[in-house]
Design goal:
transmembrane helix, mainly beta, signal, membrane, transmembrane, about 40% strand, about 10% helix
Length: about 290
Amino acid sequence: MAQTGVAGVLLGPLTTTWTMPQTCSIFMPGCSTCDNAYNGQSCNPTSGGQVMDNTACWPPATSGVASPSWPFVGWGFYSPGLACPAGYTSACTAVYGQRPPWSTQFSLVPSETAIGCCPTGFACANVNGNTCTATVTHSTTIQTAFCSGTNLVDFAVATLPSIATATTTETNSATTDVESSTFTRIMTLYAPMFQLNFHESDLPASTTSSSASSTSSSPSETSSGNGTLSKSSGGLSNGAKIGLGVGIGLGVAFLLAFGAFIYYYRRSRNNAVPLGNLRNGRVSCACGITW
């Protein structure tokens, strides 16, 4: 069931790339034959090793923010949020006043934008709250483990989708029939989503030079491959503007010189003596005077 329209808890800023513990990327199936698995989990020592959401797999929250028992169903948002954690990327974007591509759990305020950070290859979803999901239909390998008490055990690299065997047993008064069949088990993977909220004024200026062929002079948002957001400015650089001014000046000077050349050339042609009037040492003029 989707959870929407929640005010949410401000967990603090997230402006640099944070790296989670390595165990956070291990997927823990609910059982050996289950068709779903979650990462961001740990074996809870206070509940006999029950699998629990591990808050250490979330970027650090500001001091004083309470840690819920199940952050997977939506803990809060980071603001200003400018950088997804390592291994995560910007999977979806929501803008205040516009219809988002997923059911956003936490509401936005005017002029605010939200980014949903998910592991590469996952999509944004709302499964009882902000969630990243991936249904594995092509050959993929993941690391899995199970809890035994407070310890992770049975580490394995699973290749998905997998071939599973289903066994059915029918017993009557005389015999017991056991039938087995195989099928392809499609796994659905779940990972925590991190919602990053920001205003345009929160974005740092891009360190890359603007292209002289840019068609827009208004700031825009860009996302690098690691999910870091920045603001790039369009328009010409100062050097390009100076070069353009010099080029225009030279062009105008050339046109003026060329125009003057044409003018004096035509004038000289009009004043030239036609060769046909040079006969017997005389030059005739239309004005009737003869030399």
